[in-house]
Each structure stands twice: as C-alpha cells, then as structure tokens.
Design a protein that fits this description.
Blueprint lengths: L7 H7 L6 E2 L5 H11 L3 E6 L2 E7 H9 L10 H4 L13 H11 L3 E6 L2 E7 H29 L5
Parallel strand pairs: 1-2
Antiparallel strand pairs: 2-3, 4-5
Helix pairs in contact: 5-6
C-alpha cells in the first residue's frame, strides 16, 4: 500500500533555509541584488512580521523592464504581487503541486498562525514526489519478486 505523502511542514524540516525577504519600500534593484546574492528567483515582501506580498523575477521583467521603468527608481510595493497564494504546513506535496500548476506559480509561502514559516518551490515538491514514487516502485518490485519466489514453482 502506498504511504502518505509528505506535508509542507515535513518538506521544510528536511530542507531548512532562511526566509529571504525585502521591504515594500526597498528598490526593485536592491531586491534583484538580493535574489542574485542568494541565487533565488523570488523573495517575500514583509512589512514587519506580516507578509505584504511576493516579488519574482517575472514581476520585474513584466512590470519594470517591459514598462520602461528602472529598477533603481521603482519601489517593490509598486510591482509586487499582493494576492499571495499560500499553503498551510498540513498541505501535502501533491496538493502544493496541484495548486502551483493551477495558479501557474513556482513558489508557495507556508503560513501557520498568520506567520510565514517557510517557502516551498516547485523543485522541492517535484523532487519529493519523484523520490516517493521511486520508493513505491522499488517496494512493488520487491513484493512481486517475493510473490514469485514464494509460489515455489509450477502448478
């Protein structure tokens, strides 16, 4: 029987990392520098301890470059996504992946008691689901081999 899928909480505990965030008042250029320094494509936008939005390289490309603005003169608040799609720690990897696919996003903040406890990416979720499926296939192969051996031969 297939085991239960990991939750967002378990995924975060397997790969602990710092929350990477900027302020709504920061320049987009500062946010881009942080993304480059941390080798990420998305940052949280935090107002004190509250999630105010999320900023991705896609936001920059579409709302700064294509709009003829400059990153140094544009504030994060002017281009961030404010309607943030998020999950709770109890969402499974399958649920996270389905939500990412449906909303065409690559990162999901994980929120517990109105506080961001981490972010899961589509890569995190896909890697986990592939590992789980590979493990399941190995278990099936093992079970089939044992069934063949246990039959003891021909009828």
């Amino acid at each position: 029987m297939k085991k239960a899928r990991k939750t967002a909480r378990q995924l975060l505990s397997d790969k602990p990392r710092d929350l990477i965030s900027v302020s709504p008042d920061d320049s987009v250029l500062a946010a881009l520098r942080l993304m480059a320094d941390k080798d990420v494509s998305t940052v949280l936008v935090m107002q004190a301890d509250s999630l105010a939005g999320i900023l991705s390289q896609r936001d920059y490309a579409r709302k700064v470059e294509l709009a003829g603005r400059t990153a140094g003169d544009t504030r994060v608040r002017d281009i961030m996504t404010t309607q943030v799609i998020y999950v709770t720690p109890d969402h499974t990897c399958e649920q996270c992946l389905a939500l990412m696919h449906a909303k065409r996003i690559r990162h999901l903040p994980v929120i517990e008691s109105q506080r961001v406890i981490g972010v899961v990416s589509n890569n995190d979720v896909l890697e986990e689901l592939i590992q789980e499926d590979e493990s399941f296939i190995k278990d099936l192969e093992h079970d089939m081999l044992n069934m063949t051996i246990d039959t003891g031969g021909s009828y």
